[in-house]
């Protein structure tokens, strides 16, 4: 693929992501159409997921398998959480997120996939830079330390994203926690489930580089930070 086409695809995708999130933030915070923007959250999530997959350079069978596993793991974990409280804690989803199975909107499985892919892409880029520095210094990172760092730091990143998102999601009616209190157990579950998925992401043979994933994570994080402070 011509490099100009690659950059065009990336830049157009970033522009769309910025347009959706900036419009959403302004619409929710400073317009009389707040409810309209909130109700169209599913469209935002779907468009971002499509753009993320569109920018994935290699969609081989391993990547497809990982995407299915990440979606299914997210859905199954949330079903356990919603229906038993054994994972995450006691919470329920509102109607904003759309159609669901066993009390869990399908978009939640998609958001799990998006979060893990973005966290994985960031860690891949970060470790690639570290490896280059090690190589220039004549050193080499041990494979086991490389993997542990990837999984641990990536899971922390995914959990941090959830930490920023939680109070905003409650205010927007995405989901509700018992007694309006997010338990620490939720974040522990997020960390361990993310770690399992990122471990799988790390070992499965498909190209990990995805520049749009890095930009999307930052855009979504800034979106929720803005709403957390000003909503």
Written account of the structure:
Helix content is 74%, strand content 4%. The N and C termini lie far apart (43 Å). It has one domain. The protein is mainly alpha-helical and 231 residues long. The strands form two sheets. Strands 1-4 form a two-stranded antiparallel ribbon. A two-stranded antiparallel ribbon has the order 2-3. Helix 1 (3-30) runs antiparallel to helix 3.
Helix content: over 70%
The N- and C-terminal alpha carbons lie at a distance of 43 Å
Beta content: under 5%
Number of separate helices: 8
**How many DSSP-defined strands?**
4
Major sheet: arrangement of strands: 1-4
Give the H and E element order.
HHHHEEEHHEHH
How would you state the average pLDDT, rounded? 92
Domains, number: 1
Main pleated sheet: 2 strands, antiparallel
Indicate the overall shape.
globular
Uncertain runs are none
**Which oligomeric state applies?**
single chain
The Cα radius of gyration reads: 18 Å
Classification by helices and strands = mainly alpha
Key phrases:
two-stranded antiparallel sheet; about 230 residues; mainly alpha
What does the secondary structure layout of this molecule look like, with pairings?
Blueprint: H1 3-30, H2 34-39, H3 41-54, H4 61-84, E1 91-93, E2 100-101, E3 104-105, H5 106-136, H6 143-171, E4 175-177, H7 184-203, H8 211-230
Antiparallel strand pairs: 1-4, 2-3
Helix pairs in contact: 1-3, 1-8, 3-5, 4-5, 4-7, 5-6, 5-7, 5-8, 6-7, 6-8
């Amino acid at each position: 693929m011509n490099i100009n086409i690659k950059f065009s695809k990336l830049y157009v995708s970033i522009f769309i992501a910025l347009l959706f999130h900036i419009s959403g933030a302004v619409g929710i915070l400073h317009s009389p159409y707040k409810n309209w923007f909130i109700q169209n959250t599913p469209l935002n999530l779907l468009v971002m997921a499509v753009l993320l997959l569109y920018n994935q350079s290699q969609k081989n069978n391993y990547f497809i398998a990982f995407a299915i596993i990440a979606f299914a793991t997210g859905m199954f974990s949330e079903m356990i959480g919603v229906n038993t409280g054994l994972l995450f804690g006691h919470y329920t989803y509102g109607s904003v997120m759309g159609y669901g199975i066993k009390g869990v909107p399908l978009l939640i499985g998609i958001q799990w996939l998006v979060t893990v892919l973005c966290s994985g892409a960031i860690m891949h880029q970060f470790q690639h830079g570290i490896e280059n520095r090690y190589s220039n210094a004549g050193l080499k990172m041990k494979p086991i330390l490389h993997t542990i760092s990837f999984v641990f730091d990536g899971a922390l990143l995914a959990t941090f994203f959830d930490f920023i998102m939680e109070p905003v999601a409650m205010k927007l009616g995405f989901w509700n926690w018992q007694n309006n209190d997010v338990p620490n157990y939720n974040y522990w579950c997020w960390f361990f489930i993310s770690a399992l998925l990122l471990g799988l992401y790390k070992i499965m043979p498909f190209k990990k580089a995805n520049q749009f994933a890095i930009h999307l994570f930052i855009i979504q994080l800034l979106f929720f930070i803005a709403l957390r402070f000003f909503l």
